[in-house]
């Protein structure tokens, strides 16, 4: 039975459920292929309730990126706290992408980037910031690895960071037609090897 929430009865939990459903749809279909009707039907609310929480699709997309980025960079903070070894940090970074693919999904910001020209300006800004922060984090890890003698010095740590992110996003994309994550894992291992990270023991 479909529950019809109204602005008067809507709760923060409703907003969370909206974000959960919308995130899955964007990660599997893309933002342009997701409609408010899709989300409201899955959540079990009316379109009016959905618009109460997120008046426009741009508002929903901003909420999605903000929440996804928050989780992503909290995971990177955890990696820094718990993995002092540079190679382990880079492997853990790759594992974030692998875990998303294992759920049958793509990186949220990667999916949004594929529709970048059609995104509202506020969403474009957040997607760009997501990738910029990713590049910066990886660049610092690579520089530390070089300083410690754990990684070979690249021509440009920034370019290496960007190539790693691009490679992982592409690995997710070409792995979608294949069952499982084996193709992604093989490509990810090759990307790490190119940076100088030895294979997992």
From TrEMBL:
<protein>
    <submittedName>
        <fullName>TetR/AcrR family transcriptional regulator</fullName>
    </submittedName>
</protein>
<dbReference type="Pfam" id="PF00440">
    <property type="entry name" value="TetR_N"/>
</dbReference>
<keyword id="KW-0805">Transcription regulation</keyword>
<dbReference type="InterPro" id="IPR036271">
    <property type="entry name" value="Tet_transcr_reg_TetR-rel_C_sf"/>
</dbReference>
<feature type="DNA-binding region" description="H-T-H motif">
    <location>
        <begin position="35"/>
        <end position="54"/>
    </location>
</feature>
<dbReference type="InterPro" id="IPR001647">
    <property type="entry name" value="HTH_TetR"/>
</dbReference>
<keyword id="KW-0238">DNA-binding</keyword>
<dbReference type="InterPro" id="IPR009057">
    <property type="entry name" value="Homeodomain-like_sf"/>
</dbReference>
<keyword id="KW-0804">Transcription</keyword>
<dbReference type="Pfam" id="PF16925">
    <property type="entry name" value="TetR_C_13"/>
</dbReference>
<dbReference type="InterPro" id="IPR011075">
    <property type="entry name" value="TetR_C"/>
</dbReference>
<feature type="domain" description="HTH tetR-type">
    <location>
        <begin position="12"/>
        <end position="72"/>
    </location>
</feature>
